[in-house]
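Recap from last week: sequence in, structure out.
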Amino acid sequence: MNKHELKGQWKQLKGSIKEHWGELTNDDVDQAEGEFEQLVGRIQERYGIAKEDAKDQVEKWMNKQPR
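Predicted structure tokens:
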């Protein structure tokens, strides 16, 4: 899955995102609106991790998603 697919499938993926990153609130997920960098920022903020670590987590998660 790439960044364009993330945005296009956002509504379908929201549940999976909440399941994977349980500390994200519904508002966090809604505000990210399918934007890769927004999602990374929300994860970085909620989990107190470096931006690169959050980015790696999102990329790994995206690679596991069906197309």
